[in-house]
Each structure stands twice: as C-alpha cells, then as structure tokens.
Amino acid sequence: MGFTTAFFVTWLVVRYAGTYARFSLDLDLHAVQKNHHSVVPRVGGLAIFCGMAITFATSTFLYTSPTYEAFLLLSCATPVFIAGLAEDLTKRVSPRMRLVCALGAALAGCFVLHAVIDRVDVPAIDFALRILPIGIAFTVLAVAGVTNAMNIIDGLNGLASVVAILIFASIGYVAVTVNDWLVASVAFAMIGTIGGFVVWNYPSGLVFLGDGGAYFIGFVMAELVVLLIARHPNVSAFYAVVALYPAFETLFSIYRRRYVRGRAVDAPDALHLHTLIYKRIARKGIAFSDHPHCTRRNSVSSVYLWLLSLITIVPATFFWSSPYVLTFAALAFVSVYLWIYSAMVRFKTPGWMILPVAVLRQTSRTERPPAAPDRLH
C-alpha cells in the first residue's frame, strides 16, 4: 500500500510539476551545494508522508499493525514534515525555525510515545540519563540531530532514500527478532513507501525528497531506534550506529565549517563527501553542460556512499546486542570515511575508486551519436 500510494503521488508531482512550477520546482541551480543541472520538483516528501498516512489508515480496517501507536508517531512527525515542506514550497523557512520544529517533534515523541533514551551502556553516563529531565534533553537533541542529518546527505540521486531503506531494513529485522511489532510495521511501511519514491528519483532524478521528505524520514528513523533501545534492554544502545553515516556527516560538517574554515555551522558548502565524490570522481572529464552524462554520474556517485554506509548497517543488523562489535564497526566507519575524505581533498583519490567510473565513461562514449559531417568539405 505504501509503495503504490507513494508511486502514484510521485507520478502526479512529476506529471504536473510545470503547472505549479513556482512552488514545486527547485529553480536554484547555482547554489554551492547543488549537484543537479535542470529544474526538478523537490516535494517528493509529500508522497512519502501520504503513503505512510494511507498505509496506517488502511491497516486500521485490516487490523494488520498497531495502528494507534503508529498514528501517534505520525502525529509527532507532522510538525517537522510541515516545516520542511513549507521550505520546499516557499524557500523562506529559516534553518533555525526548522530546527525548532525538529526539537518540538522530538519532545512530543518523548511524552506521547515514551521514547526516551535512559541508557547508552556507559555506566557513568547512564547514571545521569536515569534522571528524567536529562534523559529527555539528551533524547530530544539526538532525535533532532538525526532528523537534520538526513537532510545533509540528501544531495545525490538515490543517496538519502536508499541509505534510509537500508537502515529501515536493519531496524525492521531487529524489531522482528525482539517481537516489537510497532517498530517492525513502521519500518517495513517506510521501506515500501520510500521505494515508491525511489522509482522516480533513481537514476533519472525526476523528483527530489526535499526538506520535507528528508526531515520526515530522519525523524521516523530516529524515533524507531530510540524505541528499540528504550523498550528492549537486550538491544545494545550502540545499535544506534546503524544511522552513523548521516549522523557523522553532520558532526564532521559542523567541525569542518566552524573550526577548520571559521564559518557558520549552517552555511552551505560543496565539501561534503558525496559532493567530492561526484565532482572529483564521477564527473571527472565531463563538462557541466553535458546534462545527460552528469545525471548518470550523479547516480553512480550514490553507490559509493551506499557501500560506505553498510560498514555499520550490516554489523548493527546481525550483532545488535554486542557493544564490542558495534564499537569496532563505528571505528572502522570513521577511519574509512576520514581516509577517503582526506585523500579526495588532497586530490589523491585511490585508484580503485576511479575504475568503475572509467568503465562507465567508455560506455558513454559508445552511446554518443556520430558527429555531423563538416559542412566545409
């Protein structure tokens, strides 16, 4: 149901994008963080939100999932989705206002769903988190951070959406293992709903998630992880590394902007890892004006980040109760991320990263039509 609804609503968005171009299209092609080359609707999050709402409404009649709690979760997510969608439509909602909405949504989740982190499996910190106000404050900051993190990595075709599918698949697997049917049903519904959007987003990039979609996905993801940790003592708190890629990208961006470059933490730039991969590997040797090939390379770039995210997603899925394995996975991810980033910033990209793109470049040449004959002859 989620897949079908999201697929149909996304089709409507793409089909009638020109009719409501003033509101739905992303007309700013020259911003420093942009990687696309033509105007595209950025309200794909509307399809995902509608898909989840209709899925939960349908399950009410079919008695197939814990719909009451699911609707509570959807209600908590609504403010942050509306804030993001308002930015997509008006381009006038400030980052601070969107952050306030994320904090408010996370606070609502604490009281409505009792989704409060009371442990991180570190004794000294756990003692403080058992004090309810401290636990609530920590949870609100963590959930709001992951909510914004998904928006940070939403820069390439299929990047944020497919990474989200991989993370929700892990969450769903663990939820089934511990018999948490609320978390499982929401996670699987999110997979289907995002899948209906991905058909239109990858690889052609006909529609984008937008802030509304990224915030909604990030919030639901964070809440499900919190619920797993809060409800099930046998799930290690270190299982949160399942979402380490978007979270670490955000923390590293804050550090890079504030302490390395001396800029505001919310100032956009073109130095995210996914942007470097696109510009210095995938688009290498391709002119910006070559739109079809640039779009293809945009999509190829996402594959690198999908594989990188699996460094933590796979261990978290199968070793969700082992803090030692999860800690090792987190350290491995951070090491690989920093190594790749450092190499690319210094223009010393490893050769194994370039090989797949070189093959694609050769394919692209063979697909080009023959040149027109020189009229002078």
From TrEMBL:
Per UniProt, Mg(2+) binds at 151, 211
Q: Which GO molecular-function terms appear in the entry?
A: metal ion binding; phosphotransferase activity, for other substituted phosphate groups
Bilayer-crossing residues are: 43-64, 70-87, 99-117, 129-149, 156-175, 181-200, 212-230, 236-255, 303-320, 326-345
Q: Which UniProt keywords are listed?
A: Cell membrane, Magnesium, Membrane, Metal-binding, Transferase, Transmembrane, Transmembrane helix
Decide whether keyword Magnesium is in the record: yes
Report which residue ranges the record marks as coiled coil. Answer: none
Q: What is its main location?
A: membrane
Q: Name one Pfam family in it.
A: Glycos_transf_4
* Location within or outside the cell: Cell membrane
Q: How does it sit in the membrane?
A: Multi-pass membrane protein
Is the Cell membrane keyword given for this protein?
yes
What does the record give as cofactor? Mg(2+)
The GO biological-process annotations, alphabetized, read as: cell wall macromolecule biosynthetic process; cell wall organization; lipopolysaccharide biosynthetic process
Task: Identify the GO cellular component terms for this protein.
Answer: plasma membrane
Q: What is this protein called?
A: Glycosyl transferase family 4
